[in-house]
Amino acid sequence: MKRRSALAVFGAGLALTLAACGGGGAGTGPAEGQGESKAPDEVTVGVAMPTQTSERWIADGDNVKKQLEDLGYKVDLQYAGDDIPTQQQQLDQMITKGDDILIVAAIDGTALSSQLANAAAQNIKVISYDRLIRDSENVDFYVSFDNENVGVQQGTSLLQGLGLLDAQGQETDVAGPFNVEMFAGSLDDNNAGFFWKGAQSVIQPFIDSGKIVVKSGQTSIDQAATLRWQQSVAQERMENLLTSTYNDGSSVDGVLSPYDGISRGIITALQNNGYGNGGKKLPIVTGQDAEIASVKLINDGVQYSTIFKDTRNLAGEAVKAAQAILEGKEPEANDTETYNNGKKVVPSYLLESVIVTKENITTALVDTKYYTQAQVDAGQA
Q: What CATH architecture is 12-139+310-351?
């Protein structure tokens, strides 16, 4: 994997990203196939986001829009309500209206080939945002986090919470065995496979040694998948696992969860089944995206961990890539080997993420001004 050193996700990283975006002035050169260059205020960037039901995607949309507008561009921001036909229609409309470039966070990474072919026919470049768009040659750039490493971090935090790894990631002499259940993301999201692969790379050795037992036997990603990453789907599956597998008095000790919304569904099912509040001890539950409701749960000792992915910096990289393309330049990639979408290896810029537990909420999220302490205490942004 060809990467330069990882971009810091905290504090000054945002300022550096914005400074880099400003270099040279927007619209100073023509994008390939677009003829004469346009001034920034003559350029419209279409931004397609999947849903507003997750605060993470609201933050992404807001950050991309703000940073583009700070550079003088017009922004056509659309949310699709997790409905594939709606996102397809929104992209068709952006192309018809003549948006100059598209930044797309796909609902289903395999469902946009027709729209991207149409964009290519109109010389409109496409940046795939966080979720890789698959099965299309017309994806020009990809910005995301190191998604397999996110999975490694999730698996590592689960093992640390159980005491099988110490704070430095070294195996301890704790023997277990611990009952663990595993959840995956939505199979139509390319990232779900990377998260799962990374997590399994660190968990599987402990399954093999007998220190972890997946009592349900549901150890494949197909069995663990959560359609559309929905909290209600995760809650129902956890309830079914408790009824079918833990009705003999045994307890769940840990749950691998790839996303905070899924984590909250899992926790609700556990609490409804008598875990916490003086009952059975709540298991170690992981997460991702540092959603404020889950950050409060972590601060309160209910959820164990989340993975913080600073969307301000991800937005900054998308904006940098868009500006470069609009100026007829190649956007800077730090990975040109990993992300094959089934038709091509898409040049990518990957950022790093951080495990957040109760111990580092302040340094990771408050000191970097991602949240205020009051927001953490209230569980509301």
A: 3-Layer(aba) Sandwich (3.40)
